[in-house]
Fold this protein.
Amino acid sequence: MKFPLIILAILHLHGITQLKDQTLIETSCRNTPNYELCVSTLHASPSSATATDVEELGLILVDAIKSKAESGVSAVDKLRRLHPELREALDQCRMSYIAVIKADVPEAVAALTKGIPKFAEFGMADAAWEAEICEGSFESAAESPLSPVNKDLHELATVAVGIIKILL
Amino acid sequence: MTISATDPNGPLYYNGWYHLFYQYNPDSAIWGNITWAHAISKDLIHWLHLPFAMVPDQWYDINGVWTGSATILPDGRIMMIYTGDTYDVVQVQCLAYPANLSDPLLLKWVKDPSNPVLFPPPGIGPKDFRDPTTAWLSPDGDKWRITIGSKIGKTGISLNYETKDFIKYDLMDGFLHQVPGTGMWECVDFYPVSMVGQNGLDTSVNGPGIKHVLKASLDDDKNDYYALGTYDPIKNKWTPDDPELDVGIGLRYDYGKYYASKTFYDQHKKRRILWGWIRETDAESLDLLKGWAGVQSIPRSIVFDKKTGNNILQWPVEEVESLRSSSVEFKDVTLVPGSIIPLEVHSPSQADIVVSFDIDKKTIEEAANMSYDCSKSGGAVNRGPLGPFGIIVLGDETLSELTPIYFYIAKAYNGKPDTHFCADELRSSKASDVEKIVYGSTVPVVEGEKYTIRSLVDHSIVESFAQGGRSVITSRIYPTKAINDAARIFLFNNATKAKVTASIKIWKMDTADIHPFPLDQI
């Protein structure tokens, strides 16, 4: 009768570990302005299952922000050809997304891995701002073909700031 | 080439030169890859770059040569203690010193083979242990003491250590001080000020007629807080004069953008001098275009405010005045309610402005009670009976861009007037990628004093001092139109009742060139 006991024990332990990670994500995400987005973004990443500290959760979010900014750059490059009349705004958006990818994200990664989280906060606060700047460079919200990207980027960045503030 | 500069490190005066080191990323306009850049000056104004003093090249600082402080021993040796971030991301303290003390430039620095000299103690997180202070002597004079900021939970603390040789340390019982709810204490600074004398004091001085300043940079809100108090060297504890204005919950060095500041004792001119990091408040996309981010403030001397007895005074070092060239002066200018007067000046973007305002006492007495808060006020457009009045800097001709620096007097419920000193960035620039808020706080005005402002304008940095340095606001301004000679300076009075009289003097400021030291010419 040992067999089933061992299997039960293994399943039980696995369940407890899952529960602990669940709690880390849940408690951390409660510190952000968008709990649903926080939880869904973290769960979408396989590495969240084994994350043991808030820094790792922060890095997952920063990576999601990087992907979102990269998708922004691709969108801009397509739109530039189709909408030459929007070139000025699209150029500004490209500059903003590149700043997120080349500066905000690397700064946040360096800060989170090296242990001075406030620089990660600066970086992610700037990422949210760059999304606003891009959106604001169009004459009106209706005119902006990048509204969905900017909204996502902004939301993700404010969620990242919430997670990072736990570390301060 | 893009660079990033942050915290000032290990400032000192030695053998004819002022030295400043600072956190520097040579690879990018963002934080990372931190080395110690090095600059020297004879007069705190004209600086010469030297090669890096320290780079992250040891296992114990490979992730960053972070902030530290210098202690000059009585025998002339210099001990530099700094935080290293190790290969496995633990914050440790390390010792370095000049390779050659007879080199006045202090070019080369040696890291002690015993490094790291301090690891995070039990109960302290490996990422909550950084920024060691300058050391001071124990009462017997046979040991040195330092303090290092940290946190336990959300309580900011400062740990006490004692050492004879800067290599072996004893962690002492209890903390120098702690304040619940303030979070991580970065860049702790601890130094004496004289209540009776004019000069600064060496860090080891203690005795009657002396108070100690304890300061912390709060990670949580990115501001530098200080408090005055008494240091008990037997218990090795510091107690604030006013617990309601304790470290982190009371006074700030600066109500604008100012962080990671550090003082040193200038034994050459017997002054306590303060350096601070002013970060950018524009978007990163702009910083990448510019290729740089972060500046150091103009150094300030610190003295105890004998008139109020419960704050310090900060004032730009007198050497700044050597940059003054031509000046214009306007005396006793009447500003009726709702007036704005442009001033003809040379070089309005690089100016030293000194102004004093007088207001009729009766008007203050007759005004109704009201409350005010610079940050929630909506700025200088919103009028009250006794304010706002002040100066406008970096304004363009049409005032499409402007930065008012002003006073606003508001009578509190007890009939006593509170004077608020604010810097309004709300309309400072037409650009959308710059931060725009109103900074400020209340400032004590002693009976009989006029309302005074000194404002140093340097293109995108404005440092403003009220009441001789009782309250200071550093602003980053990024005008698009009000630049160089297109900028204008104005006097204004937007109060509804008070008539204000102003006297103002404005100096053109020469540029302080900064170049590399001509090492090949030695």
